[in-house]
Predict the 3D structure of the following.
Amino acid sequence: MGVSRNVSELLEAVWTLQERGDATLADVGRIAHTEVTEELLTEVKNEGLVDVDTAGHLRLTAHGRAVTAPIIRRHRLAERLMCDVLGMDVEQTEAAACEFEHIIAEGITSAICTLLGHPRFCPHERPIPEGACCRQAREQVNAIVVSCDRLRLGERGRIAYVSTPDHPRLLKLAALGVTPGVEVKLLQKWPSYVLQCDETEIALEEEIARHIYVWRTPDDEEGSSDEAAPFDDDGGPSAR
Amino acid sequence: MGEGARRKKLLLVGHPNVGKSVIFRRLTGRYVVVSNYPGTTVEISRGEMRLGGTTYEVIDTPGINSLTPQSEDERVTCELLLRENPDVIVQVADAKNVRRALSLMMQLADLSIPVVLVLNMVDEMRARGIEVDARAIAELFHIPVVETVATYGHGIRQLVQAIPRAAIPQKPRPNGRCVTLIERALSGTESVPLELAVEWMEGGDPTFRHEIERLIGPRRVRQLQSAIEEHCRLCPRSLCREIEQQRSAFVNETVAAIKRTNHAPRTERITPMGFRIWTVLLMFGVGVFLWGELGAGIGIPTPYGAARRWILQHLAQPVRDFFFSHHGGLIYELLFGGPGASAYGLVMEGVHLLFLVAPVVIPLAVLMHRSRRFTEKLGELTRAPITGIPILLVVLLLVYEFVGVTGAQTLVGLLEEIVFGRYLVAGLREFIPPGFVHQLLVGPYGLISMGLTYALAIILPVVGTFFIAFGLLEDSGYLPRLAILSDRLLRRMGLNGKAILPMVLGLGCDTMATLTTRILESPKERLIATLLLALGIPCSAQLGVILGLTAGISAGATLVVVLVVVSQLILVGSLAARLLPGRRGDFILEIPPVRVPVLRNVALKTWYRMKWFLGEVVPLFLYATLALFMLDQIQVAGRSGIEWIEVGFQPIVVGLLHLPMEAAQAFVMGFLRRDYGAAGLYALAHRGLLSPQQVVVSLVVITLFVPCLANFLVIVKEQGWRRAVMIVGFIVPFALLVGGALSWVLRTWHLLA
């Protein structure tokens, strides 16, 4: 889409604020990564991207949303990429993500999205607009980071992030030890998901399992070691 | 309290299922008071412990996952922590899940109360080849850390010694960003660990505002408030998320440093040969058990049947001659049963258990006790549906044999027919001269002949055996596996797998089960579970009578009863799920490992539950009997009060349900106690007043009918008057309509006639 950098920064700010509620001119001015000038406002109004009402509230038009969604998507995917794969701190990613969103092409965006397992939320728990690749390639199996429900039975992974905007749910999971960095193993898929997480087995419904994203652990690393444990013929330190 | 004796308060805090209650019992011994937390139905146990010159009031709190409360249980624990002003917190942790324990510890540290950390179940941890450096934790937080195996009492002495040394945890300062964020927000004030305060305030929970103010002062609360708001405006992620993330990062680091997993060779306390032999024996035992169950149903000779016949032929007669010639009729009848075929006698019961239950239970116990490999495998098999459902059926049959046969038939038979019926009541009837007292105590509605007999001879054995079975299942870790298996079905009814626990407990006592609906998260789930419990989950006492009644009708008729009740449960559940507002809670449930139940703990638990039950139930039975007695005594226009009630219900009972008039009384009494009504029906059927069709209809109605008075009162307490009345207002017409429809169908097509 041929919008200038300033315009896209403005649109992005309006989108973000609208997710949380109202986008007032003052707020847009504060969070946009560009100077919000009268000309800029006139420009977006004239192009039919944004409506401004008398009280100074900005709203994206349908056209505006269509233009902004891919930008937001690129930005938030870039954040995920830097956080999850490069292991950077969330706040460090901000500036880089801002650059990213302007330079990556649609093909690369899909590739990144696929690599990350088509995440639904950015590290700040804001929804990532779906791309064509998300809709088409749900069956893609080669992603490095996948949601738990796409692990094979018995497969292990290390939790990358838990992506849910539902804070109580996140707390419950965290309290049971489902936090980033913890190793999990998928034990059962039906009728409920059962994850082994540290030393605890946790039963989850499918919907929640889909919110837990993990890095796959190569099979050869672990696996057979505890199955092949030899019998200790009678005695030895007992379980008591 | 002697003079100079000091009193201190000690709170046991920890995640669910880490052994708090076991430690509580170990610490306090006898003097335990269980009460509801004010304004809630959450039960709190309080006991006392003496240590040196100090008396500690020990309070067992409900399990919590974190100090940011998500359920009523967690809220109560937080309130106890804040309002009881405890002198010591004993944090009980599952040693193998030390990560969670440290997370909670990080929050507890903000309360500035001395803490002792208990790493419980270190045996399970070691068996998994895990080592946790307790000393490192002690040094990191500057608190005493004790390792225990509470079920066996190991380490309790060390814990007691550590209590006076409890210290306020020194929270290691990870120097993370969120601390600086808060400090920046509170610029000028000295740095205090305030993460917990932020989490509470941001949780938007007004309840704790006052406590937070007391904890950190009103000025800081205001500063924090504006800091949170400021943060919220500028940063995309909330402050408590930042805190949480930082805490979890710190805990991960710490765990990496203190926990070692060495995949040590598994220690088995059984030789491979022994393992094979016992496994074969277990298979054989299950085979014998199923043979006994199915064979009896289709008329094939079974080992149990053969043994029973042999004993009756060769042993009973000589023993009978011996005892009757020595005035030992009662002893004989206790051993071999009364003249009626329904009473089994203790010897017969021994044969029953030996030939049916023991062949399964003994190899199972040996294997579980000796082989970790077996126990782990069992854990897997019980949670996967392909193997789990057959195992569930065997477990249900076993429980039925124990509760439904041993409890509801043998013990009830012995106590009701022989001890109460033929000896106690009969003796008293001769002893007490006819008149008012005779009527009051041993008349048809006598306090002893009816009230005590129902309570002690019918209900107690059934509930007692149920509590034993439930305790064993509970302590073996089996029940959460049932939650996995039933999650999908329950979700259709607006619940989730967790609701299976109150449902199973409801088979013991609906009143108690209604109290446990508090483990469900959303109000909608609690309402639906309460409704379903009241509607169609028969309690064990009722179940005993129902099973007794179905013994008199065909298997097909029993199936009809079960199908009708279950289909109504599913129907009402799915309708409620759609019609009621609100949402279902998440199904996230910890599945504990399968464990060998420690008999001492099961016995203690059963004892406490029986005591609770006796205290609650016996008075209710006596009141109900007294009410009946008075109704029977009052004469109005030539009819007694009871007859008037029967007349009032006649159009419904006789007209709609086509039952004999006396059944009206059973339904009325059914409200006073559910099982009471069922027991009344039992008596009717015994007198041959009910046809098979009528048995089926009355069973369906009495199962679906109103909950007992105690259950109703608990519903009022849990859900309020309005909803309780609405629940009953729905159930009564619904039960009668279903019963009427069923009766019509059976009569029209001459089914089960």
